[in-house]
Amino acid sequence: MARPEINRRQFLSAVAGTTMAVTAAGLAAPSVANAAKGMLVPPGKIGIQLFTIRNLVSSLGFRVVFEELARLGYKNVEFAGYTSPAEPGITVQQIRQLLDDNGLTGIGSHVSLNAFRANIELELDRAEILGLPFIGTANEPVTAANRTVAGYQAAAAEFNAFGAAAQARGLRWYHHNHQNEFRFAADDPSVRLYDLLLSETDPKLVFLEMDIYWAYVGQHIAPGFDPIDYVLANRLRYPLFHAKDGRRSTSANGYDIVEFGAGDIDFEHFYSSIGSRGRHYSLWEQDNAPNTPAEAGGALGAAERSYDAIYELRG
């Protein structure tokens, strides 16, 4: 694959439009030796969903992005595709080498349900090459027209089949939620769809990645549950979290996505309440990070500040 040489000044200019917003000194990760007791997310469990910085992956490629993520202190990477226009023809084997070269661990990957349906063994092959312990989807289990009891029962059966295929390869299959999974069934307003998904899927085959932001949006649009309770009742089913922050707003969702630490979700309470410190991986995601102004360091500046905010969480 092509390996363009990009120096530090060129990189900062590309990601932020300025070399003043994010300095080399500012990219240094906090010292683990200085970590206070009560850290809620250990450094080795802090990761990033690459969709967050998709503009950088697209324009600069995996090599440069991985180098910068490692410099910031991130340890784990969750994929949202395996291609980059900046590195035409790059293979999953080459991506794995770039992970290893930068001391990063591939922890999971978001794959579409249609891709699993078309060729699940190919997706599992890729996961094995990348060394992923988890592979799953961020797709809603059904289309909006099928948010019914029967629709979710059928989806759960499909998820069990995907989970069994993954288990046979030594992998764990997972589902990442958005807000609609917390709505009530269209044909039975007494049934919350997420409850149905949990009850109909085999806990040994189907795992869950709670997107904390979207769970709180779900609480806003379909009240009557606490996201924390789901984790407490199903501790072993939640190996992954999306650490996504939101600020309360008058929007339909009740929150707007913001950098981690700049919002109103009480993550100290969340992580302190679920316990099992160090068992879970927390992956920072911010859907709108590519829109971060150049003067604030662009998406890389958001990545730096969000890493620091997760690192500083104390119970």
From TrEMBL:
A molecular function (GO) term: isomerase activity
PROSITE patterns reported in the protein's UniProt record: TAT
Coiled coil (UniProt feature): none
Keywords: Isomerase, Signal
SUPFAM superfamilies listed in its UniProt record: Xylose isomerase-like
InterPro entries: IolE/XylAMocC-like, TAT_signal, Xyl_isomerase-like_sf, Xyl_isomerase-like_TIM-brl
Domain Xylose isomerase-like TIM barrel: 66-290
Gene3D superfamilies assigned: Divalent-metal-dependent TIM barrel enzymes
Protein name listed in UniProt: Sugar phosphate isomerase/epimerase
Organism: Jiangella rhizosphaerae
Taxonomic placement: Bacteria, Bacillati, Actinomycetota, Actinomycetes, Jiangellales
